[in-house]
Design goal:
There is one protein chain. This protein folds into 2 domains: 205 residues, no CATH class; 73 residues, Alpha-Beta Plaits (2-Layer Sandwich), CATH 3.30.70. It is of the alpha+beta class. The protein contains 10 helices and 6 strands. The chain is elongated, with a radius of gyration of 24 Å.
Length: 294
């Protein structure tokens, strides 16, 4: 019970960290430069420029609430409690930043530098939230609705939605009328494509584990160490070395990166002649790792 509570607390803290990083990236780097790389924040940034009667954070909150209502009605359980929480917290934190740290211009005069921070902060934040099995809502809900009523998958629907939002930044609405703003538009599209790769790479990095194939003549001690100290299962296979002619045992297991360092060191302490194959993997499903129902 205590372990479950610790895991829930850790998950909650990481989820809020992800939301905070996204809020910082949106308010301090995306909004001042007019970068709309998709999502509700992108729509809010465009609306705040076209109709400045409301601020970006207020538009963001209104759109998020409307989309959450649609999500609950259309998607039901697919629009989960965590998504509702993250969506509302993201809007609230943007409003708090707007109130406490008002900005009248970008932080620097280097838009490319600010785009890099905007993509990294929102990308890392999104990846952490996804890792906690939640999402920031927004256009994710639109993508799920499109998936439900069309043949599109979520990834394609999300990319199409975000692309349309980013493309809107090519058009500038001002006192002189409608004009073309290629710089902001190109930066927004660049940020959108960069975000796709950044989020995928960060999720893979967060999920990264090590797969061990250990060929040894001392399987008992190594097996005990993995079961009792690393606390992971082991698959044991009897094998015969074609070159040496010796009977050996193959142990197969997977563990997280921090555990892999300990295991590698311990195997060589127990059996200096052991042969190990260690590979990286970010998709491990089963007990102790990722639930294969998700």
């Amino acid at each position: 019970m205590a372990k479950t509570n610790r895991l829930n607390l850790k998950n909650w803290l990481f989820m809020n960290l992800g939301v905070l990083l996204m809020a910082i990236g949106i308010y301090f780097f995306k909004a001042p430069n007019g970068f709309a790389t998709g999502g509700v924040s992108g729509v809010a940034i465009i609306l705040a420029n076209v109709l400045p009667v409301l601020t970006q954070s207020v538009y963001m909150m209104i759109i998020n609430v409307l989309l959450l209502i649609v999500g609950v009605i259309v998607l039901g359980k697919e629009c989960g409690i965590l998504t509702i929480y993250c969506s509302l917290m993201l809007s609230l934190e943007n409003w708090l930043f707007e109130t406490l740290v008002p900005l009248s211009a970008p932080l620097t005069s280097y838009p490319l530098l600010e785009l890099v921070y905007a993509v990294l902060l929102t990308g890392v934040g999104s990846a952490i939230i996804f890792k906690c099995r939640a999402s920031s809502g927004g256009t994710d809900i639109v993508a799920l609705v499109l998936k439900k009523y069309t043949s599109m998958n979520v990834g394609t629907a999300l990319l199409c939605t975000d692309f349309l939002i980013a493309a809107m930044t090519f058009i500038r609405f001002g006192e002189q009328g409608i004009s073309i703003d290629p710089q902001t538009g190109l930066f927004s599209l660049l940020g959108l494509f960069a975000k796709v790769f950044v989020v995928d790479d960060i999720i893979d990095s967060i999920n990264l584990c090590k797969s061990f194939t250990i060929i040894t003549v001392k399987p008992g001690e190594i097996n005990d160490y993995i079961l009792k100290e690393i606390k992971h299962g082991v698959t044991v296979i009897s094998a015969h070395g074609a070159y040496t002619g010796e009977n050996k045992t193959v142990l197969m297991t997977v563990c997280r990166r921090s555990e892999a360092i300990r295991l590698r060191k311990k195997v060589y302490e127990i059996d200096p002649g052991a042969f190990m194959i260690i590979t990286k993997t970010s998709e491990i499903m089963g007990k102790g790792f990722r639930d294969n129902t998700n």
